[in-house]
Amino acid sequence: MTIKHVVAWKLASEDPAERAEHAAGVIERLQGLLGLIPEIQELSVGANSLDYPGNWDLVLVSEFADAAALDTYQQHPEHQKVGAYVRSVVSERAAVDYEL
Q1: For position 51, what pLDDT does the model report?
Q2: Is residue 16 helix, strand or coil?
Q3: What is the CATH number of the domain that holds 71?
Q4: Which residue ranges of the chain lie beneath pLDDT 50?
Q5: 21: containing domain
Q6: Buried b / exposed e across 52-71, counting CB within 10 Å, b at 16+?
């Protein structure tokens, strides 16, 4: 049972330059987990490109072999470091995990 893990965030800062810096920091840190955490089968992360009302700022779409692999990823020390940074720059988080 493959698990797709999707997370969206709204950035906390109202300053455009700071928002861009924070978005880039989140993207760079999440992409840096590829190769460090073997349980990640696929990972794509990006900033919102279109300024439609209601759109969130960032999204992560990742894939894991099963729920145990997702749990291992979430508990991995490198993921915990990234998570601490993300929590420091976002105001809201939404996530969905579903089976493929």
Answers
A1: 87
A2: helix
A3: 3.30.70.100
A4: none
A5: 3-99
A6: eeeebbbbbebbbeeeebbe
